[in-house]
Amino acid sequence: MQIVSALFVESFEMRQAPGPATRIDLTGAMFSMAAPEPVPLTIAPHLVALIFCPPGESGEGVFEVVFRKGLAEDDEQMARNVSPFSVEPGKFTYRLVRGELEFTEYGQIFAHCRVDRGPWHLVPFTLLPPA
Questions:
Q1: Could you tell me if 113 and 49 are in contact, meaning their C-beta atoms sit under 8 angstroms apart?
Q2: pLDDT of 70-94, one tens digit each?
Q3: What is the largest CA-CA distance in the chain?
């Protein structure tokens, strides 16, 4: 299986379309946000990942997200989420993760995402000073 896309978003909705087909409405895709108040603070942005299962695979997997203060696997961990999932082979699924992230200073963190023990897919997020 593979991660097709992963983004921080304000909201996420699924709807049916003719076919039958499914549409995913993502609103407010973001890579940064102004803090709602001065640090220290905790925020919980939504991370949505779209995952594809090729035909012929089992359709069973584990989605892992580790929020880190840097790009490397040994950088400080802020939060972690692991969730098993199943998807019909040849189709897509999504995983929605809401990490509780404690910021003591403004700056950038990275969501390290992977399926099973596959390669990491990195998604940056920057907390800016209040506007």
A1: yes
A2: 999 999 999 999 999 999 999 999 9
A3: 50
Domains of the chain are 2-128 (2.60.40.2550)
Structure tokens given for 69? 């203060």
Is the Cβ–Cβ distance between 41 and 5 less than 8 Å?
A: no
Q: What is the CA radius of gyration of the chain?
A: 16
Give the DSSP H or E segment for 78. Answer: strand 77-86
Whole-number pLDDT of residue 130: 97
The pTM (predicted TM-score) of the whole model is 0.93
Beta carbons of 111 and 65 less than 8 angstroms apart: yes
Residues 6 or more apart whose CB falls under 8 angstroms from that of 117 comprise none
Closest CA to 32 of 122, 106, 95: 106
